[in-house]
Structure formats: structure tokens, C-alpha cells
Specification:
With about 425 residues, the chain is an alpha/beta fold. The protein is built from 12 helices and 18 strands.
Length: about 425
């Protein structure tokens, strides 16, 4: 039975939430494996519009067990609020579980994320300020506290005490801030622990059991390939791996277990936060895309930078993730344009290059070289069959398919589950 990794192929916000929610109707398990509440996965269904930050987008499927894997950074307050909101909307959350290996976002992580951004000044990354970078930094530095530690107040306090001493030294002596109180953190986090106890477990065992039962498992990516700390536009990246490979590390699945790597591509490009984006449109066309598509961050509300589809970056993303299927989202946003551009190569110091430079400074110097395709200038949001798309829209999708070098399986032409064209079987 298949294990399918659903991966953001650009700079995040590709519409993974909608696709996961759709596929979850036939899945037994959906697992988040990276990031934290920096993610904002939008799902629109008959219960309303939801922006999920931590809970997998499979939560609306009566069939799916939803796991938050060890690779996710957990802000307990955000998790509990999300559970509450879902319950208030009539969504059952009895099949949600959190890995006991997942790291906790602590109050000092949130503070330091903001303070570091201020310190960087003009070189700020434009983080979501959710404490993600500091939490993953502490995980690597062996200074993290895991959800499993929350289950015993004494263990939690023993673990926190020396770490907080160190963090308070940094807060007071580096940033000139007030120290945080051990008692306050222990008090609030032990309450979280009581509420979270029912959800915390060794999720890798549950995954193993699901594999043994031949279950269908979806691995729900967060952020996007070009934000990966190794292969993205470092240092303008996030701090955990959004790649298909990251799905193994963030769940405890062995690499041979993943059968499909499905890349989610928006029909154009967006990016939120700083860092190079070769096809960014700073003028009117970019504004038109932003307003037409309401391209504002689901987590921070920041306006997203918009631009044409970058096929150089897309090929790179396909290679890094080994995509064997692609999904094109938001095709309908391009309905209004008389012609549509795709960057097929870059111009760098007068030379044409076809690869995505590994160095961010070099990438920032690249100028996109465009192919221009005719637009279709008619609405596509009501269309459900590929054959019924306007000829130019089919041509656009086929062009992307060729250039990404992997078959397009689904095309999304609107926010709701129904607004999806199944081009090829998964
Ligand atoms: P952080 O993950 O909050 O540390 O932010 C690092 C970079 O990743 C910033 O440029 C953010 O805007 C970007 N980022 C983080 N999460 C998302 C997301 O879910 N969608 C798009 N960009 C994101």
C-alpha cells in the first residue's frame, strides 16, 4: 500500500493543505513531519475555511489517524487552541497524536526569534517569529525539551532548570532583556502537559503498525523545497527539512517505505520573507496576481512576493525530491492574462545557465529568461475534466509537465475540494 510524500516544491504556500485534505478521504494516516506553526495550511470544505498550523490537513477525513511526527516543533498553546477551534466547528479530534520525540517551542524560543530578527536589521530573514529557528537550533545543540518530557513535572523541571539559566544569561547579557521565571514556565507547561498527555505517544510505533496493516499513509509537507536549510536559498530558509527525504527523518519511516513523492507546484511563484526570487514581479503584474489570488501569509498576514513560474527552480526541486508526480495548483489565477511567462533559464553575468545556483548571492544576480505562452482569458474554476480546459491552458500544463519532467496528476482550479481536475491516476 502506498506511502505518499506530499511536498511543497517552491517557497511554501503551494496549496498542500487542499491536496492533503482531498487525498486524505482515502487515506488511513496523515503525518506532519517538519516545521511547526510557521505553517498555515488552508482547507476549505463544507464545515468552513480552516487555517491549520499544526494539526494535519487529514483531520476532516473520518478514516484518517492524524499524527504530528517527531520532526515537528510543537507550541503547546497553539496545538490546544487548534484542537479547541476544530471541536467547536464539529470536527472530531480523537485520532490526533503527537510524537513524544517532538521538540517543544519554549517561551525563550519565541523571544529569541524576534530579538534575532531585530538584531539582523537589514539582513533579517523575515521569519514568522514563531520560535522555529531557535527551537531547531536547540535540538541540534542538545538543549531541547521534548513533548515526552512534559509528562512528568519533575523530569521537565530538571531538564529546564540548567537550560533556562543559560537562556537567561543570553537574554539578559546579549539582548538586555529581563530573565524568564522558572516557576512561571513550569506552571504553564505542566498545565499544557496535563492537557497534552492524551495525545503524546511513540508515533513511530503507530506508523509501523499502519505499514504492517498495508494502510495508505500521507506525509504532509510544510513550507517548500526552496526553504530547505540544506538545498534552499540559505540562509533565507526555514530550519527543518521540508523535502521528501525530511519525511523519513521527521517520522521514523525508512527511506525504502516511501512509494510516491508528489510535488505541489503553484502555477506561478510566490515567496514570503527575504531572499532571492528570480521571477519576482515587483510592478503591476505582481500586484494583480497578489490581489487576484489573495496572496497574503496564512500565518502572518504578510503580502507574498509574486512572480511567474520558475522552471529552473522547479527542475531543481523535482531532482532533489525525486518527484514521480506533480500537482499544479491555482491554475485559475492565470485565467485573466493575455499571455503567461515561464522562466526556462537564467542569465548570469551575460551567460545563459540552466541550473539553480547553489549560492544565494549568485542566485540573486540571476535574471530570468522567459518563454511566453498564450493565455486563455476565460474562467477555468468550474472545469473538472482536463479535456475541457481551454486549449492554451492545456498547453500551459503540458509545457510545465515537460519542463518539470514528471507527470501532472492533479490540477487545482479553486479552493474547494471539488475544484480539482484529475489528469492522471495517482
Ligand atoms: P521561519 O520558518 O519562521 O524561521 O521562517 C524562515 C523563512 O521561511 C521565512 O522566509 C518565512 O517567511 C518562511 N516560511 C516559514 N514557514 C513558511 C510557510 O509555511 N510558508 C511560506 N513561507 C514560510
Amino acid at each position: 500500500m502506498p506511502v505518499i510524500a506530499i511536498i511543497g516544491a517552491q517557497w511554501g504556500d503551494e496549496g498542500k493543505g487542499k491536496i492533503v485534505e482531498l487525498l486524505a478521504q482515502d487515506a488511513d494516516m496523515v503525518i506532519r513531519f517538519s516545521g511547526g506553526d510557521n505553517a498555515g495550511h488552508t482547507v476549505v470544505n463544507k464545515l468552513g475555511e480552516f487555517k491549520l498550523h499544526l494539526i494535519p490537513s487529514g483531520i476532516f477525513s473520518p478514516r484518517a489517524t492524524c499524527l504530528i511526527g517527531n520532526g515537528v516543533a510543537i507550541n503547546p498553546r497553539v496545538f490546544l487552541d487548534e484542537i479547541d477551534q476544530l471541536n467547536k466547528s464539529g470536527v472530531t479530534t480523537s485520532k490526533v497524536f503527537i510524537s513524544d520525540h517532538a521538540h517543544l517551542i519554549m517561551p525563550y524560543h519565541l523571544l529569541i526569534d524576534g530579538l534575532e530578527e531585530q538584531r539582523r536589521g537589514g539582513q533579517a530573514i523575515g521569519t514568522t517569529r514563531k520560535g522555529i529557528g531557535p527551537t531547531f537550533a536547540d535540538k541540534a545543540a542538545r538543549l531541547g525539551i521534548r513533548t515526552g518530557d512534559l509528562l512528568d513535572k519533575d523530569i521537565f523541571t530538571q531538564r529546564l532548570r540548567p537550560i533556562l539559566e543559560y537562556k537567561n544569561t543570553i537574554l539578559t547579557q546579549v539582548y538586555g532583556e529581563k530573565p524568564l521565571s522558572l516557576e512561571d514556565i513550569v506552571s504553564s507547561y505542566s498545565q499544557y502537559g496535563e492537557h497534552l498527555a492524551a495525545y503524546i505517544t511513540d508515533t513511530s510505533l503507530m506508523i509501523d503498525e499502519a505499514l504492517g496493516n498495508n494502510n495508505i499513509i500521507l506525509l504532509e509537507g510544510a513550507q517548500g523545497t526552496l526553504l530547505d536549510p540544506d538545498f534552499g536559498t540559505y540562509p533565507y530558509t526555514t530550519s527543518s527539512s521540508p523535502l521528501a527525504g525530511g519525511a523519513c527523518i521527521g517520522t521514523g519511516l525508512g527511506p525504502t517505505r516511501i512509494n510516491h513523492s508528489l510535488g505541489i507546484f503553484k502555477a506561478y511563484c510566490t515567496r514570503v520573507g527575504a531572499g532571492p526570487m528570480p521571477t519576482e514581479l515587483k510592478g503591476e503584474t505582481g500586484n494583480i496576481i497578489r490581489e487576484q489570488a489573495h496572496e497574503y501569509g496564512a500565518t502572518t498576514g504578510r503580502p507574498r512576493r509574486c512572480g511567474w513560474f520558475d522552471a529552473v527552480a522547479a527542475r531543481y526541486s523535482s531532482r532533489i525530491n525525486g518527484f514521480n508526480g506533480a500537482v499544479i495548483t491555482r491554475l485559475d489565477i492565470l485565467d485573466i492574462f493575455p499571455s503567461i511567462k515561464i522562466a526556462t533559464s537564467y542569465k548570469l553575468d551575460g551567460e545563459i545557465i540552466n541550473y539553480f545556483p547553489s549560492n544565494t548571492t549568485t542566485l540573486a544576480k540571476c535574471q530570468p529568461v522567459y518563454e511566453e505562452l498564450p493565455g486563455w482569458q476565460t474562467s477555468t474554476s468550474h472545469i473538472r475534466q482536463f479535456e475541457e480546459l481551454p486549449r492554451e491552458a492545456k498547453q500551459y500544463v503540458s509545457y510545465l509537465e515537460k519542463i518539470i519532467n514528471c507527470p501532472v496528476k492533479l490540477i487545482s482550479v479553486g479552493a474547494s475540494r471539488e475544484q480539482t481536475i484529475k489528469k492522471a491516476p495517482l
